[in-house]
């Protein structure tokens, strides 16, 4: 049975996610250090995924009472996302704000700064992948819980209305189809002409 590494030890590594402070965790870091191709430099995505994973591990370690990854649920993931909101840089207007629904407000307002929906969505995607890469079973993945998907949808809708920004899926641009030029077909010869 695959077990998920517990988060009990720490080291002095300081890695931050959007300036939230130290995010060290030896058990989680160690599980990431053994990548299949250790001779190549990890991609930006892989580095960010590792930092996010370590940040979440640090969050669980600092949780009161401390929480092991194996006991983590979708509710804890939601708590983590709400915690991250305090470090957000995206202005989200409240319904009573005169700039509610305006993408480019003409003046400052006291509305709160939040994590942007796109950032949270990408973060959950990376953490979902990291969870499974570190031995978690897909069916038990707290980052894929229905409550987390619902929360992200609600954040997207709220921010879309508040900021006057559409979050519709972008349509893929299809490669231009080559026009097949119709070749002139020979006209059929009249009957009896040969």
From TrEMBL:
Tell me the protein family, please.
Answer: Belongs to the plant homeotic and developmental regulators ALOG protein family.
Subcellular location field? Nucleus
- Pfam families documented for this protein: ALOG_dom (PF04852)
Domain of life (superkingdom): Eukaryota
Compositionally biased residues, Pro residues: 185-194
State the organism named in the record.
Answer: Salix suchowensis
> What InterPro entries is this protein classified in?
ALOG (IPR040222), ALOG_dom (IPR006936)
The record places domain ALOG at 44-171
User: What is the protein's name according to its record?
Assistant: ALOG domain-containing protein
Key words of the record? Developmental protein, DNA-binding, Nucleus, Transcription, Transcription regulation
User: What segments bear the compositional bias annotation Low complexity?
Assistant: 29-43
Region Disordered, residue ranges: 1-20, 26-50, 162-194
């Amino acid at each position: 049975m695959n077990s998920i590494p517990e988060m009990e030890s720490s080291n002095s590594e300081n890695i931050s996610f959007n300036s939230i402070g130290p995010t060290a965790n030896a058990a989680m870091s160690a599980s990431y250090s053994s990548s299949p191709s250790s001779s190549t430099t990890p991609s930006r995505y892989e580095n960010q995924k590792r930092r996010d994973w370590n940040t979440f591990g640090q969050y669980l370690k600092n949780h009161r009472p401390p929480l092991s990854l194996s006991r983590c649920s979708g509710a804890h993931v939601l708590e983590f996302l709400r915690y991250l909101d305090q470090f957000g840089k995206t202005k989200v207007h409240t319904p009573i704000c005169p700039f509610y629904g305006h993408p480019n407000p003409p003046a400052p307002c006291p509305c709160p700064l939040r994590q942007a929906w796109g950032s949270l969505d990408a973060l959950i995607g990376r953490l979902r992948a990291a969870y499974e890469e570190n031995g978690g079973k897909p069916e038990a993945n707290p980052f894929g819980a229905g409550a987390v998907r619902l929360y992200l949808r609600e954040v997207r809708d709220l921010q879309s209305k508040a900021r006057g920004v559409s979050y519709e899926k972008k349509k893929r641009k299809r490669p231009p189809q080559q026009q097949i030029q119709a070749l002139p077909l020979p006209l059929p010869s009249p009957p009896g002409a040969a």
